[in-house]
Amino acid sequence: MEPLLSLTDFEASLKRAGMELTDEQVKEIYTGWTFLEPLIGRLRGATTRPRAVEPAHVFNPLQPLS
Amino acid sequence: MIPTIVEAARQIADKQLSPVELTQACLDRIGKLDPILNAFITLTADRALADAKAAEARMMAGTLAGPLDGIPIAHKDIYGTKGIQTSAHSKLLEGYVPDADAFTVIKLAQAGTTMLGKLSTHEFALGGPSFDLPWPPARNPWNPAHFPAGSSSGTGAAVAAGLILGGTGSDTGGSIRGPSALCGIAGIKPTYGLCSRMGIQPLSFTLDHAGPMAWTVEDCAILLQAMAGHDPSDPASANVAIPGYTSELGKGLQGLRIGVPRSWHESDFKVSAAVQAGIDDAIAAWQEQGGEIVELTLPHLAEYQAACWTIMIVEAFTLHEPWMRSRFNDYGELFRDRVALGGVITGADYNQALRRRRELIADTFAATKGIDAIVTAGAPEEAPQIDAVPKWGNLEKPSFTNPFNITGWPALCVCSGYGEGGLPVSIQIASKPFTEPTLFRIGHAYETARSWRSRRPALVN
After folding, report:
1. 20 to 30 Å CA-CA from B93: which of B249, B277, B362, B383?
2. C-alpha distances out from residue B260 to A62, B280, B330, B417, B453, Å
3. B324:A66 CB<8 A
4. Is B151 a catalytic residue?
5. Residues B403-418: what's their mean pLDDT?
6. B9 pLDDT higher than 70
7. What mean pLDDT do residues B380-385 have?
């Protein structure tokens, strides 16, 4: 199955993240993306709970900086 | 004959074994075998002999600190060591010398251990096996053409070959248990927060665990006794009472219920015949000792893998972002290419992975109600050839170790025999948070019921 993110868009995402890479490097990393993207798709589709329910990030306002 | 920690400690306590001679024997083996195994990045022979002489003085004075006094160990080279290079096996930290020891390094030194040096890892505990770094990758002592797994590869190789009696590792997705499985030793990823990560090079703050590796389960329990404990300087450190980790050993398995999630190793990722035989053998051994075996259904392995890898590489990219932008080509190819993916994942997907993690923890607890432990594979098969490890293998196929980084549950790998190629295979046992004594009890019950510990790699002899 074709990845949802095209090679061109993938390269743009790497650039936005600050990584200026050769075409060869982009293609090599994109191979990894073709394996990772379906895993991320699993996360998106796995839960039927509303996203507003039980946010994952909570913090303790009294916790000092370590 | 290479002693276990238990055997060496007993002989030292009886003044039958000199810590200096024990350390020198390890140094001699290192001199002979490490040119083949590449387990060490930095050897601290002078420091080791000084430590050993101090231990010997305590032995003669009758003031030994405990069962680790005079025991030769070494640390994975992401553990900070004062005055000693801590490279993370990377060009980026080559020559970096910390001005303080990691919390666990201090605790193991206070227990009287003899420190032989710093051990190979995958680059920053993720990129490996790599051949484009300042140091070569560690090799599997059972066959040096084969992979020792990673990222605590040097510790796995060094313990199996008897270069040290125990050592430290870290585990973000399986980096203690993988090398323990493929090198045929015991290794435990303790409960998240049980061992402080202060002073250890991080990879992923919500998944990183520190823990010990050794030849036997009991030796791991003794090492964990020294490493565990609250540390306010690690925000994830658990402030819990530390039990005696050897306290349940030898008590039999009467009353314990062990769950088997067969779908994990029979269909999610079908393991080799030798690995399956090891799981079946462990089940038989436990039943003989009064344990009850229960069939169990857990979420698909890929569910844990998806959450684990999404969280891990986003957090790793966060840590490495400045150098990923400015010094990309100074990293090895495997590390930089894997972590670059973390720069592409959206914030929404990262948060969804964290939410999914909480669901998986709840699902795992619900499925294991009334069960004391889970048994599955440590690794799917024997070690592959080191030059045949696929670059994206951890994303292509699910992992047996990721579930317990996601849940934070303690998990222990124990050797369960040898495959067709003569390399070790392993079972993995996991239990509920902070139940390490039970975990050791179950692992020890299997290990001592079989004779797998009587065999060492041929190159040691």
Report:
1. B383
2. 42, 10, 44, 19, 24
3. no
4. yes
5. 98
6. yes
7. 98
Give the residue extent of every domain in chain B. Answer: 5-300+355-460
Q: Is the peptide bond before B129 cis (omega within 30 degrees of 0)?
A: yes
Query: A56 and B357: CB-CB below 8 Å?
Result: yes
The residues near A50 (Cβ < 8 Å, ≥ 6 apart) are: none
The pLDDT confidence band at residue B19, using thresholds 50, 70 and 90, is: very high
Residue B76 bears catalytic tag = yes
Domain spanning B5-300+355-460, CATH architecture: Alpha-Beta Complex (3.90)
Task: Work out the angle at residue B453's Cα, subtended by the Cα atoms of residues B269 and B301, and round it to the nearest 5 degrees.
Answer: 15
Residue B269 scores a pLDDT above 90:
yes
B326 is annotated as an active-site residue: no
Residues of A in contact with B306 (CB under 8 A): 39-40, 42-43, 46
What pLDDT digit, counting tens, does each position of B128-163 carry? 999 999 999 999 999 999 999 999 999 999 999 999
Q: How far is the C-alpha of B249 from the C-alpha of A13, rounded, in Å?
A: 53
**Is residue A66 over pLDDT 70?**
no
Inspect the interface and report whether the beta carbons of A36 and B341 lie closer than 8 Å.
yes
Phi, psi of B294 (to 5 degrees): -130, 130
Assign B292 a pLDDT band (cuts: 50, 70, 90): very high
pLDDT-derived band at A53 (thresholds 50, 70, 90) equals confident
Q: How far apart are the first and last CA of chain A?
A: 46
| Contact by Cβ (8 Å): B158, B37 | yes
CA distance B69 to B56: 9
**Average pLDDT, stretch A13-20?**
97
Pairing, β B424-431 against β B411-418: antiparallel
- pTM equals 0.98
| Contact residues, chain B, for A66 at CB < 8 Å | 232-235
Chain A positions contacting chain B at CB under 8 Å are 5, 10, 13-14, 17-19, 21, 25, 28-29, 31-33, 35-36, 39-40, 42-44, 46-47, 49, 51, 54-57, 63, 66
Q: How many Å apart are CA B168 and CA B72, to the nearest integer?
A: 12
Looking at residues B417-442, what average pLDDT do you find? 98
